[in-house]
C-alpha cells in the first residue's frame, strides 16, 4: 500500500482535523464554563449572605447620656440576682430615667425612637457595675425598628431626615451587636439573637449523637464482622441503604406519628428532634463505619486470632480502634447533615417561637436552620439581615465540622 | 510456519527457519529513533536508544520485565503524552518527520501509527461499532456502504470475519479473549495505519489463539511496519525479522533476529536468551 | 420523673456491682492453687454490671411507657377532672398544660382548669415515680443476686459477656429494619385511614387539589386530587432541576477528571463539596429572596404577563444548583470506574479527548451515570425546604415554568403544620402523599443502586 494514498494523510483528512480540533476546544470550554458557573454560584451565594449578614451582626443604636447622681437610683451593695435588680431599678423609675435622658440627649423626636426595651440594657450594665451610678455615663441603646430601617435608607421615608440628622451629630450609629450571639428569638428584629436556636441545635445534636453513634457503630460492627450471609442480613443491608436515601421529610412523618404519640408533651423538645434526626443519621454512620471497618486488613484479625483472642476481643481491641478515625469522619459528616436539616423538625413542631433559650432536653426549643426558616418568613426588613447573619453562623459551624472531618481523613488515612 | 513443528525446537533454529524474510534487505525505513530517552518525573526509564523500524518488517522488542519496552513503544505514537509525568527527549521520525516536532499532529500521528494493547480492550459497543469507530471519528467513510466495506475488509484481514459475520451487532466484549484481541487488531487496521505497535498482544491468550495472532502478524507484515513487544523469545524468533534487546532502560543489542538468537554480540543478550535471568 | 434519676441509679448500681464482682473474682484468683480462674476478673465485673444495668434500664423504659397512662387515669379519676370537656383538642390542651405546670415547665397558664388539675398531676406523678423507683431497685437487686450467685472460680464469664455483646450488636443492626418497618406501617396505616374517606382513584387521578383542614361534615373527594402535586413535583424536581443539574454536573465531572490539572482539581473538588454541604434551608432562602424576584423581574421585562413571584422556575433552578455536586460526584465515580484501557484504546486510534469522552467513556459509564441521575431525581423530588420557601402552595396544572406550582413535600408541610385535627382527611392526606413519595423514592433508589452495583461489577 503506498503511503501517498493513505487516507490519513490526505488534505481532506487535515481539513477534517481542523474541525475536530475546533470541536475539542468548544467541548473543553463548555466543561470549563460548567465548573466556573458552579463556583460562581457558590461565591455569589456566599457573597450575598456575607454582605447581608454583616449588617445582621450590627444594629442601629442611639447614644443616650445619663447623669445618674441626679436621678436617685441606687442598688444595695453586694451580690444581687439580675431579675431582682431589674425589678428594683424599674421600681425606682429607671425606665423614666432613660426616657428623660434620651429626651435630653436626642430631643423629643429622637427619644421616641429609643427601643422600648432599651432600659433593660441600662439595668444590665448597672447590675454588672453599680459604681456607674456615681457619675455620668453614656450608653448606646438600640433604636426602634422604624428608625433602624430609616437609617438603613430602606422604607420609613418620613423618618429619614431625623435619622440623617442624628447620625450627623454622632448620636446614631451601627454598632456591632454582641447580644446577637447571646439572646434568643424576639418579635423585634432589633432585639433578636441566635443563642436560643444555637443552644437548641446543640441539645438536639447531643441527643442525635448519643443515639446514632453507638447504634450506628454497633450495627456496622455486626454487619461487617459477625453477620452470617443470609436473607436477614440482606434485608438489613437493603433497609440501611434505602434509609440513607429516603427523603428527610419522611423521617418527620415517622417522628410525628410515633414519637409524638408516645411523648405528646415533648412536642418541639430537643429530645424528640434529636431522636428523629438520629434515625436519619444512623444509616450514614453505619455505611461509613462499614467502609472503615472493611479497610482494616484481615491480616490484623488473623494475627489477633492467632494469639488466642476471642472474636469479640479481636474486634474491640484491634479492629475498632483502627477503624475509629474513619468512623468518626463519617459520623461528623452525618452530624453536619443533621445540623443543617429542617424539614423533619418542621413536622414534629420545632417551629415554635422560643424566646428563652432551652435549658434541658425536654424544653421547648428550636434549632438554627429552623430559626433561619422562621425569620425568612418575617416581612420586616430588619429580619433579612438577621437571617443572613444566622446563616453565616450556621455555615461556619458546618465548615468547621467538615473541616474537622477532612482533617481526620487526611491525618489518619492509612495505606495498608 | 506451523506451531507444532517449532514447539520443541531450540530458539536459534527457529530463528533461522524464519530466515525467509531475513535475506531480504529492508526496502524502506519507516521510523527512526535517535538518542531517545524517556523519563517518568526524575526517573529515567529509557536511556539514549537508537532504533530503525522498517516497512514490511516485524521488529520485536524483548527484555526482562520493567526494562522499558512498553515505555519505548508508547513513545513511538506519543501515547506517553497521556501520562502527565512522562517526558521524551531525542528524536523519533516517521517518514523523516520528527513526531515530537510542534508541527506534528498527535491525532494524525496516532491514526498513522496504530496500537494494540497487552490486554484486549474492545470498547463496550457492538463488534461493528468497534471497527467503525476509527473510520467514523476520522471521517474515512462516506456513507453506510463504504463503512460496511471497511468493517468487512478489516475483519477479514484480522481473520475474524468468518467467526463474527453473523453477529456484528453483538457486544465486542462478548467475544473470547483471542477473538477480542483480533477485534482490536481489526480495529487498528480499519483506519489504514502505516505502522502497528503491539504490546505483548498474546500474553493474555492461550497457545491456539496465540498461534492465530502470530499468523495474522505474519500476514499483515506485507502492508505495514509492525513493532511487537513480547516476553516470549520463541515468539520473537518466530515472527520477527529484527529484534531489539532492552535491559534496564538501555538498548543492549539490535539486529537481525537470527543473529540475535544465534550469535549475539553482547554477553547480556546471551545470558538473557539462554534464560540466565529475566 | 426526670430521666436523669433512673439513669444515675442504673449507673450507680452497675458501678457498685462491677466493683464488688471484680473484688470477688480477685479473691477467687488469689485462692486458686495456680492463680488462674476461668475468666479475667474484669469479665466477672462486666457480667455482674450487665445483669444489673440491663434489666434496670429495660424496666424504666417500660415503666416510662405505661406510667404516663397510669398518671392520666389517676388524674381523670380525681374530682377536679369531672369538669373537663368530654373530648377534642381543648381537653388535650388542658391536660398537657396541667402536666407542664405540674412538672414545673410552665407558670400558671391560660386555663384555670389546668391549674386545678396540676395538683392531682403532681400527686400522681410523685406516686408513680416512687413506685417505679422501688420496683427498679428490686429488679436491680434481683439481677445482682442472680449474677453473684453464679460467680465462681470456674465460671466462664467471658463467654457470657461476649454473647451479650453480640446480642447488643445484633439489636443495634435491627434498628434499621425497625425504622424502615416503622415508616412503612405508619404511612400505610394512615393512608388506609385516608382511603377510607377519599377513594384512591380520586386521590391518584383527580386534578383538583383544594383541601380544607377546617371543613367538617361530608368529605368532598374532589378536593383531594393529587395530580397537580405530582406534576409540580416532577416539573420542578425531575425536569427543571435536572435540566440544570445533569449537563452542569456531567460537564463539571468530565472537565475535572479529563482536562483539569491536578492543582485545579484539588481546589475545585472541595469547593463542590462545600456546595453540596450547604443546608437546603439556605438554598431555599437564596431562592426566595434573590432568585425568585429576579426571575419575575426578568420575565416582566421580557413581556410575560403576570409572572408569579413563586415560580416553579426559581425553585427548580436553585434545586438544580443544589444537585450539581451530587450529579458531578456520581458521574466522576462512574467515569473513573471505566478502565484506563478504554481511554488508551481510543486515544491510540487517534481520537481526540472529547471524541474519547463522548463516544467511549460516557457510553461505557452510562449505567453508572443513569443510576446517579436516578438518585439525584429521588433527592430532588424529596427535597423540602427549597420548595417550601420558594414554591407556592397553590396547586396549578401548567407547563409554564413562570407559573406558581406546588409539590408533594410542600403540601405535606402545609397540611401538617396547619390546624387540622389528627384524624381529619387533610391531615391523613399528608401521610398518603408521604406514602407515595416514599414508594417512588424507594423504587428509584433501589433500581439505581442495583444498576450502579451491576455496573461496578462489570469492570471489576
Ligand atoms: N506511569 C508510570 N509512571 C512512573 N513510572 C513508570 C510508569 N510506567 C512505567 N514506569 C516505570 O518505567 C519502567 C519501565 O516500565 P515499562 O512498563 O516500560 O516496562 P516493560 O519493559 O514494559 O515491562 P513489562 O515487560 O513488565 O511490561 C519501570 O521501572 C516502571 O516502573
Ligand atoms: Mg510492558
Which fold name is given in CATH as the topology of the largest domain in chain C? MetI-like fold
Overall tally of structural domains of chain C: 2
If you average the pLDDT of chain B, what whole number results?
87
Q: Tell me, briefly, the overall form of chain C.
A: flat
Question: What's the total count of β strands of chain C?
Answer: 0
Radius of gyration of chain C: 31 Å
What's the CATH H-level superfamily name of chain B?
P-loop containing nucleotide triphosphate hydrolases
CATH topology title of chain B:
Rossmann fold
Span between N and C termini of chain B?
27 Å
CATH class of the largest domain in chain C: Mainly Alpha
Provide the CATH top-level class of chain B.
Answer: Alpha Beta
Could you say which small molecules are bound to this protein? adenosine-5'-triphosphate, magnesium ion
Count, helices of chain B: 13
- Tell me the strand percentage band of chain C: under 5%
Shape of chain B: globular
Order of strands, widest sheet of chain B: 6-7-8-3-9-10
Q: Please tally the helical runs of chain C, counting DSSP H or I stretches of 4 or more residues.
A: 15
List low-confidence stretches of chain C: none
Features:
heterotrimer; B: 278 residues; alpha/beta; Rossmann fold; 6-stranded mixed sheet; 4-stranded antiparallel sheet; 10 strands; disordered N terminus; C: 460 residues; mainly alpha; MetI-like fold; 76% helix; binds adenosine-5'-triphosphate; binds magnesium ion
Describe this protein's structure:
The complex is a heterotrimer of chains A (about 425), B (about 280) and C (about 450). By secondary structure, chain A is mainly alpha-helical. Chain A folds into two domains: about 60-175, no CATH class; about 195-410, MetI-like fold (Orthogonal Bundle). Chain A is built from 15 helices and three strands. Chain A has a three-stranded antiparallel beta sheet with strand order 2-1-3. In chain A, helix 8 crosses helix 10 and helix 11 runs antiparallel to helix 12. Chain B is of the alpha/beta class and about 280 residues long. Chain B has helices at about 5, 10-15, 20-25, 70-75, 105-110, 125-140, 145-155, 160-165, 175-190, 205-220, 235-240, 255-260, 265-275; strands at about 30-40, 45-55, 60, 85-95, 95-100, 115, 195-200, 225-230, 240-245, 250-255. The longest helix of chain B is centred in the middle third of the chain and has 15 residues, at about 145-155. Chain B is globular, with a radius of gyration of 18 Å. The mean pLDDT of chain C is about 85. Chain C has 15 helices and no strands. In chain C, about 75% of the residues lie in helices and about 0% in strands. In chain C, helix 1 runs parallel beside helix 4 (about 110-150), helix 8 crosses helix 10 (about 310-335) and helix 11 runs antiparallel to helix 12. At the A-C interface, helix 1, helix 7, helix 8, helix 9 and helix 10 of A face helix 3, helix 5, helix 7, helix 8 and helix 9 of C. Adenosine-5'-triphosphate (ATP) binds near residues 40, 45, 68, 71 and 85 of chain B.
